[in-house]
């Protein structure tokens, strides 16, 4: 409409001037269209109108926050030879601010100005951002509109690197290092305004610290372990490429000390153990030929009381204490799906419902509430309900399952599991919501396997050993894992 009105007025002038000399034709300037208005940028068009040759020594646009154009900002486009349309783009405007604009031209030392248009720069707006949980160094994308150049993003107090600002509507940035907080607000700072995203960002957490090494620089394999009020006990099994290891080493996490604990039974490999019971296992007399040990022991701190022998052979079974009873899950030698219950009141062993999959040392177990969970070598998570004697499929481990032999521990309502052989991943499973979160990867030699773990306070301690095929003086190492630390 503005352009049409200007052209009509100019046509009247032309009609009038056609009766006069050509050099008296009027020269007009029109402020035409707002082609683009962003947060800090404006693109606008104007037109120099006349029916004769004209040379403008300068032309462009004026912008001001005042209709009087006091303190106006000038966008100079330089010399213009001849009438016609011109377009200018200017930046540096304040977001959400009302401005007045008009075109101008300098002809024969006289400034000719067009009519005034009013505009308002836009305010930024956020539609979405992703991811909301990631590690430092990962990329995040924030989608919205009106993100001018110079937009800054902060994670708490840490400024992120803005990698790309696409069409002022899509910010790609690199997540900065954490400043010590796991959950932080994300702030977008644009000029003197700040937008705080509605949901905070959560850093992928998990801090590993090497605490100590296994005494004597030894590496043992096919061992057993348990944790009780006396400490973390690791032993039996065999030394690397050598003889059986006939005793235990006890670690005190409060004092960070080791102590030797004798075992009154015979040496063995592949024994089962829980905080309360230990038994079974075998010695390999020749390749794949085993001499089974049926002795069964009650653990009291760091002492062992012998109970009646097991009525069955067992090798590499998983043991779980549950409400005063002992449950054995799986094992080798055809017992992969077998579940047994031991009642200490009667001293009887009872066969329970078979599991729908095989279990052994390649799996991991943990209990929560009225359920026992089994993390299989394939990553399938099953839950067993002892009272109902029922199996149910629960979830699937989202990480790499490598070559089996994971670990699993519980702190509060969250289970931490992973570290399959040939992997370094740990994942957190909220046992009430079913939500998975990846944790930071473990440090140390990648070719390591789990030899035992326990919970002390709000941390998990994991004993790791280099695989037996790895040469060198590489003692077993004990790591402290703090799931929510950075």
Automatic annotation (TrEMBL):
Alphabetized UniProt keyword annotations: Signal
Domain IPT/TIG per the UniProt entry, residue ranges: 124-201
CDD domains (alphabetical): IPT (cd00102)
Entry-linked InterPro entries: Ig-like_fold (IPR013783), Ig_E-set (IPR014756), IPT_dom (IPR002909), Kelch-BTB_domain-containing (IPR052392), Kelch-typ_b-propeller (IPR015915)
Species: Algoriphagus aquaeductus
Matches recorded under SUPFAM superfamilies: E set domains (SSF81296), Kelch motif (SSF117281)
Entry-linked Pfam families: TIG
Gene3D superfamilies on file: Immunoglobulins (2.60.40.10), Kelch-type beta propeller (2.120.10.80)
Official protein name in the record: IPT/TIG domain-containing protein
Extent of the signal sequence: 1-20
């Amino acid at each position: 409409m503005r352009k049409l009105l200007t052209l009509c007025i100019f046509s009247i002038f032309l009609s009038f001037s056609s009766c006069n000399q050509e050099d008296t034709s009027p020269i007009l300037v029109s402020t035409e269209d707002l082609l683009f208005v962003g947060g800090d940028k404006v693109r606008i068009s104007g037109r120099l109108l006349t029916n004769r040759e004209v040379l403008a020594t300068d032309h462009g646009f004026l912008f001001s926050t005042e209709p009087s154009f006091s303190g106006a900002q000038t966008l100079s486009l330089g010399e213009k030879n001849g009438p016609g349309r011109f377009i200018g783009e200017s930046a540096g405007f304040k977001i959400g601010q009302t401005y007045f604009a008009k075109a101008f031209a300098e002809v024969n030392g006289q400034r000719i100005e067009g009519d005034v248009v009013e505009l308002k720069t836009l305010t930024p707006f956020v539609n979405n951002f992703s991811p909301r949980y990631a590690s430092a160094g990962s990329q995040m994308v924030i989608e919205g509109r009106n993100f001018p150049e110079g937009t800054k993003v902060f994670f708490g107090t840490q400024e992120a690197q803005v990698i790309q600002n696409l069409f002022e509507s899509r910010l790609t940035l690199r997540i900065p290092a954490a400043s010590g907080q796991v959950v932080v607000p994300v702030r977008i700072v644009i000029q003197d305004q700040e937008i705080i995203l509605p949901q905070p960002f959560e850093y992928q957490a998990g801090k590993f610290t090497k605490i100590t090494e296994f005494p004597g620089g030894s590496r043992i394999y096919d061992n057993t372990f348990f944790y009780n009020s006396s400490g973390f006990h690791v032993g039996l099994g065999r030394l690397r490429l050598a003889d059986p290891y006939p005793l235990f080493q006890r670690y005190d996490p409060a004092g960070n000390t080791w102590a030797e604990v004798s075992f009154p039974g015979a040496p063995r490999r592949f024994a089962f153990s829980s905080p309360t019971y230990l038994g079974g296992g075998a010695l390999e007399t020749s390749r794949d030929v085993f001499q089974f040990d049926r002795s069964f022991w009650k653990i009291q701190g760091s002492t062992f009381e012998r109970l009646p022998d097991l009525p069955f052979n067992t090798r590499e079974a998983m043991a779980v204490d549950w409400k005063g009873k002992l449950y054995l899950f799986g094992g080798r030698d055809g017992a992969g799906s077998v579940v047994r219950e031991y009642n200490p009141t009667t001293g009887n062993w009872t066969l329970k419902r078979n599991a729908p999959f095989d279990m052994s040392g390649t799996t991991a177990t943990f209990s929560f509430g009225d359920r026992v969970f089994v993390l299989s070598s394939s990553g399938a998570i099953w839950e067993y309900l002892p009272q109902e004697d029922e199996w149910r499929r629960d979830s699937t481990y989202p990480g790499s399952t490598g070559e089996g032999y994971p670990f699993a521990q519980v702190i509060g309502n969250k289970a931490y599991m992973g570290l399959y052989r040939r992997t370094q991943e740990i994942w957190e499973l909220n046992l009430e919501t079913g939500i998975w979160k990846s944790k930071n990867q473990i440090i140390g030699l990648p070719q390591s396997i789990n030899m035992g773990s326990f919970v002390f306070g709000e941390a998990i301690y994991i004993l790791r050993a280099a695989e037996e095929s790895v040469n060198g003086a590489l003692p077993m190492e004990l790591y402290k894992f703090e799931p929510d630390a950075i």
